[in-house]
Design goal:
- Helix content is 68%, strand content 3%.
- The chain is an all-alpha fold.
- The longest helix has 27 residues.
- Strand 1 and strand 2 form a beta hairpin.
- A three-stranded mixed beta sheet has the order 1-2-3.
C-alpha cells in the first residue's frame, strides 16, 4: 500500500520534462525509473536531477572559492525553491567552463526552472527528505579540493589522488551513499514499511550507493586519469608502486583487492534488496537493475585482468548483457534464494579470474 499516491501529480508537460532530462544525463537511470510506482518515481527523478546540478557545479573548472559560492546558493535553493528564477538568472550570467551545452542549460532558467518548480511542489515531508540528503551531498562536495576538509587529496605524478581508504569511502559516501539514504527514506515513506524493515534498509543504504560509485570509479579509471584525478586511494597506489597512475598496470593480487573492495559493497547491496518487502515491487526491481549490471561490470573487468590499469583498460558491458540483466531481474524479482544464487555465481566467476582478494598491509 502506498501513501497518498495522488499527493503529487505532475502535469503531462512536467512528466515529459523529467523523462527527457533523465535520458540526457543517465540512460540507465531513465531505463529503470518507469518501473517504480508513483509518486516515488517522480520524487526520485527530481532528486536525481538535483544531484546532477550539484555535479555540474563540481565538474565546472572554475576555482574552488567560485564553486563554494555556487554550492552555497544551491543549498539556499533547497531551502527556498521559490527563489529559483532569480538565482538561475544570475547563474546564466556566469561562465561554466568544462560543462556541455546541455549541462549549462540546466544551470539556467530554460531547463533549470522547471526542475526547481517540480521540487517546490513536492509535499513537505518528501521534500524534506530530498533536502536533507541532497544537502548532505552538497556539503561534502563543497569541501572537495579544500585542504582543510575531508575527503583529502594528495598530488602524485601530476595526478590528484584521494589520500587514504577513509577518504575513498568518504568521497563515495558524499557523492553516492547519500543518494542511497535519500532513496531509502522515500521508500519507507511510500510503502509504509515497518520500523524493523526500515532499520535493515538504512543499515545498508550507503553501501548501495557506494557500490555503484566504486564500480564506476574502476570502470572509468583511465578517463578520470585523463582529467588529472584518481579516486582510488594513494595508500593503495603505494602498494602498486604508483604504476597504475602511469597506466603501468599492477600485480594480480592488487587488482583482486580493488575489485574485492567493490564486491564487499555489492554484498551489502544484495542484502538491501533482500530486505525489501515484495509489495515494494517496483523499487525492488529497479534496485536489481542497478545491482546486476554492477556485478557484470566487475566480471567484465576480471575477464580482462591483464589489461586493467593499463592503456588497454576498457570495461564495458554490451547492450545484450544489459538486456539480459533486465530479463534476469524480472525472473528473480520475488525470489530471494534466486537473487542470492545469481549474485554468488557472478562473484565466483570474478574470483575465478583474479583470485580471492588479500587485504593490504597498513600503509
Amino acid at each position: 500500500m502506498t501513501k497518498n499516491p495522488t499527493a503529487f501529480s505532475p502535469t503531462t508537460t512536467q512528466q515529459k520534462y523529467l523523462v527527457q532530462q533523465l535520458e540526457k544525463v543517465s540512460r540507465s537511470f531513465a531505463l529503470l525509473i518507469p518501473y517504480i510506482e508513483s509518486p516515488l518515481r517522480h520524487y526520485l527523478g527530481v532528486a536525481y536531477l538535483l544531484c546532477r546540478v550539484a555535479d555540474n557545479i563540481e565538474d565546472c573548472t572554475q576555482p574552488l572559492l567560485w564553486k563554494q559560492a555556487r554550492f552555497d546558493e544551491f543549498a539556499l535553493l533547497l531551502d527556498e525553491p521559490a527563489r529559483a528564477a532569480g538565482q538561475l538568472a544570475e547563474w546564466e550570467r556566469q561562465p561554466w567552463p568544462g560543462l556541455t551545452a546541455d549541462e549549462r542549460q540546466m544551470m539556467g532558467i530554460g531547463l533549470g526552472l522547471p526542475l526547481w518548480q517540480l521540487y517546490g511542489a513536492i509535499p513537505r515531508s518528501s521534500q524534506g527528505i530530498i533536502r536533507r540528503w541532497v544537502g548532505a551531498m552538497v556539503k561534502g562536495m563543497r569541501g572537495i579540493g579544500d585542504p582543510q576538509t575531508r575527503p583529502a587529496f594528495v598530488r602524485r605524478k601530476g595526478i590528484e589522488v584521494l589520500e587514504s581508504e577513509l577518504d575513498y569511502n568518504e568521497y563515495c559516501y558524499y557523492v553516492a551513499g547519500t543518494v542511497g539514504q535519500l532513496a531509502s527514506e522515500l521508500v519507507v515513506e511510500q510503502y509504509q514499511l515497518a520500523p524493523e524493515v526500515a532499520a535493515r534498509l538504512h543499515a545498508r543504504a550507503e553501501s548501495c550507493g557506494r557500490s555503484l560509485q566504486k564500480t564506476n570509479i574502476i570502470k572509468d579509471f583511465v578517463e578520470d586519469l585523463n582529467r588529472g584525478v584518481c579516486y582510488l586511494p594513494d595508500t593503495w597506489m603505494g602498494h602498486a608502486a604508483y604504476a597504475p597512475l602511469e597506466l603501468g598496470g599492477a600485480e594480480l593480487p592488487w587488482k583482486a583487492m580493488v575489485l574485492g573492495d567493490a564486491l564487499n559493497e555489492m554484498r551489502d547491496s544484495m542484502a538491501y534488496v533482500l530486505a525489501l518487502p515484495v509489495h515494494a515491487k517496483g523499487y525492488r526491481r529497479a534496485s536489481l537493475m542497478c545491482l546486476y549490471p554492477a556485478y557484470h561490470t566487475m566480471l567484465s573487468a576480471a575477464r580482462q585482468a591483464d589489461l586493467l590499469f593499463t592503456a588497454g583498460h576498457r570495461i564495458k558491458i554490451s547492450r545484450m548483457a544489459i538486456a539480459q540483466c533486465i530479463s534476469d531481474s524480472d525472473k528473480t524479482l520475488l525470489d530471494n534464494d534466486a537473487i542470492q544464487t545469481y549474485c554468488a555465481k557472478l562473484e565466483g566467476a570474478i574470483f575465478d579470474c583474479v583470485g580471492a582478494p588479500v587485504a593490504l598491509r597498513p600503509a
